[in-house]
Amino acid sequence: MHSDEPGSAPSSHSDHRLVNWLPAIYRRSSALEPFLAAFEEHLFGPTSIEAHIARIPQLLDPYTSDEDEFLPWLAQWAAVTMFHEARDRRHVIATMIPLYGIRGTREYVKRALELYVDGAVAVEEQDMPGMAIGIPARSRVGRGTRLGEDTFRFSVRVDFSHVPNDRQQRLRLVDLACRVIDLAKPAYTHYHFSHNLFDEERGFTIAVRSTVGVDTLLEHGPSPSPERQSR
Questions:
Q1: Which three-class secondary structure string do you get for 121-166?
Q2: Residue 4, exposed/middle/buried by CB under 10 A (0-12, 13-18, 19+)?
Q3: For 128-169, how does the pLDDT look when each residue is reduced to its tens digit (9 = 90+)?
Q4: Each residue of 17-69: pLDDT tens digit?
Q5: Residues near 86 by beta carbon (within 8 Å), at least 6 away in sequence
Q6: Taking the C-alpha atoms of 156, 160, 163 and 166 in order, what is their torsion angle to the nearest 10 degrees?
Q7: How many CA atoms lie within 13 A of 199 on its CB side?
Q8: Positive or negative, the Cα torsion across 172, 220, 143, 188?
Q9: Could you state, in order of their start, the residue ranges of all structural domains in the chain?
Q10: CA atoms of 54 and 81, how far apart (whole Å)
Q11: Helices 167-184 and 106-114, packing angle to 10 deg
Q12: What percentage of residues in the chain have a pLDDT greater than 90?
């Protein structure tokens, strides 16, 4: 004889949880169990609503979330624009939201860049010194010195841990770093970017670097060459 108490689970219906919660008079119907089976599959099966609800904490954790199904959506939720370019996508998502508290600062630009590039990053806000005739390091306008006030300019230096042999790979690394800086910096600022992926000086020098396209290049003044860029 079956008990009518909800907590009592009759042995003959132990595999049908919905039936166990019905009054005893309804359990006598042989057609009821097959009818409820479709609902039980969606409510209590391996792919049930209950199972999906239980997975919510796992899905919202970037370190345990499904990489193909849910992680890209989690990146959009965290406003991670450069999701696919990240070296460690899970770490970027987990780190980015706390970083928004310091957005617009030098520290934010530095830490955002460190998420995408492998190397030492330095961000400096001090202005370039004035021009000094006879001192090579301070006589190239736009590189080692400046004319006039420029209070919204800063400099970024990245010393990459690994320098690829392929020039296109190096250019891609430069482009990646500049894209990260463009997203991280305040919109009204501009910057000078330098790194160690190319030789610092490659201009034409007779008897030293004199084969154009091989060991030297011709450039127009302080143009943004691959080794140094200003934006």
A1: EEEECCCCCCCCCCCHHHCCECCCECCCCCCCEEEEEEEECCCCCC
A2: exposed
A3: 555 556 666 666 665 656 555 566 888 999 999 999 989 999
A4: 687 778 888 777 888 878 887 787 777 777 777 777 888 888 888 888 877 78
A5: 80, 92, 115, 116
A6: -50
A7: 8
A8: negative
A9: 1-45, 107-199+227-231
A10: 29
A11: 140
A12: 31
Q: In a 10 Å sphere around its CB, with 0-12 CB exposed, 13-18 middle and 19+ buried, how is residue 95 labelled? A: middle
Enumerate the H helices of the chain as residue ranges: 17-20, 32-44, 49-60, 71-77, 89-99, 106-114, 167-184
Q: Is the distance from CB of 161 to CB of 195 less than 8 angstroms?
A: no
- Name the residue type at position 75: A
Mean pLDDT of the region 73-102: 91
How is residue 33 written in tokens?
A: 């169990």
**Cα–Cα distance for residue pair 205/46, rounded to 1 Å:** 73
CA atoms within a 13 Å half-sphere pointing along the CA-CB vector of 28: 7
Q: What is the pLDDT of residue 121?
A: 95
**Cβ atoms of 192 and 230 closer than 8 Å:** yes
CB neighbours of 32 closer than 8 A, spacing ≥ 6? Answer: 19, 22, 26
Sheet holding 153-160, edge to edge: 119-124, 153-160, 190-195, 228-230
Tell me the pLDDT band of 182, cut-offs 50, 70 and 90: very high
